[in-house]
Amino acid sequence: MRIINAAESMHLCFEGEKFDISRWKKYMDACAPGAKQKCLDDMQECLNAGYTWEKDYLPVLNGVMINQEKREEVIRSFCTVTQNLENRILSVFGKNVDADIVLYLGLCCGAGWVTQINQRVTILLGIEKIVELDWCSVDAMNGLILHELGHVYQAQHGVISIDASKNRERYLWQLFTEGVAMVFEQEMVGNRAYFHQDRDGWKEWCEQNEAKIASAFYRELDGMTREKQQFFGDWVRFEGMPDVGYYLGARLVRFLMNMASFEQIIACNINDIEKAYSAYLAHLM
Fold first, then answer.
1. What is the pairing mode between strands 2-5 and 100-104?
2. Alpha carbon 55 to chain centroid, angstroms
3. Which of 73, 170, 207, 238 has its CA 20 to 30 A from that of 227?
4. How far apart are CA 40 and CA 71, in angstroms?
5. 167: Cβ–Cβ under 8 A, 6 or more apart, which residues?
6. How many of the other CB atoms lie within 10 Å of CB of 228?
7. E-state strands within 66-112
8. For the chain, the helix, strand and coil percentages under 3-state DSSP, each to the nearest 5
9. What are the beta bridge partners of residue 150?
10. Helices 244-256 & 167-189, crossing angle to 10 degrees?
């Protein structure tokens, strides 16, 4: 695993407090070789879709240099979460994750982006988007880094991709893999009750309504689409609460961990998970 803090040299992309894309290209070639073209291609797709450089990009890019307090908080949180990370994963799970984690100044491509660069799994953390979204705390950084590492861990040591021919299989599998990533987070933090989403009574509400969430998810599985679902993404709500699918997924995996090890669970197939969800639901009723 490689940890790269390229945010500390992000000042090279600016002339004063004004972003300069020609300077940024040199910065990217030095700090994350191979990532530059991915960022440029992503930006071009957005520009083609109607976004503008002056209105949608420059304010965010210039804002990260202007907002020193948030920028420094992001860097501190990154250092806290990644400190001795490889050894911590080994001590908790007995296996490592082979990935690069890069905190860098991107082109508004996303706060967290898991991709392949030079045949290596890479987690790109765009400081400009993290500052814009105010995801600067250690909890937010846990969500950006540890959660994605949970997905990578399942991909490298278990099964993460399936051929899902039906919506119910696709979204049940999404619930399961998000649950695996949440439990990976919890184990790394050392608190099985930890959720980085827990704000304004979120976890307490989920605990009180676990059976209702689980029943609704099962009932709606067949008709689920990305646009027609209430469980995944901060843009949707289940009875006013966001991200309840992540809570439900973690609870499903914890239920399975009463009968099998984490390593056995991440090797499950979709048939195993369908049976497990039925048992979990019966347990709640």
1. parallel
2. 27
3. 207
4. 23
5. 221, 222, 223, 224, 225
6. 10
7. 100-104
8. 60, 10, 30
9. none
10. 80
Tokens 């706060």 correspond to what residue? 111
Cβ 33 vs Cβ 118: under 8 Å = yes
Q: Which one-letter amino acid corresponds to residue 205?
A: W
Cα–chain center distance at 141: 9
- For residue 236, is pLDDT > 90? no
Count of other CB atoms within 10 angstroms of residue 201: 10
Q: Which of 177, 156, 158, 148 is nearest to 81 (CA)?
A: 148
Q: Residue written as tokens 């082979």?
A: 98
The 10s digit of each residue's pLDDT in 23-40 is 999 999 998 899 999 999
* Residue 56 in this model has a pLDDT that exceeds 80: yes
pTM tops 0.85, yes or no:
yes
Q: Residue 125 corresponds to which amino acid? A: L
Model confidence at 10, pLDDT cuts 50, 70, 90, reads very high
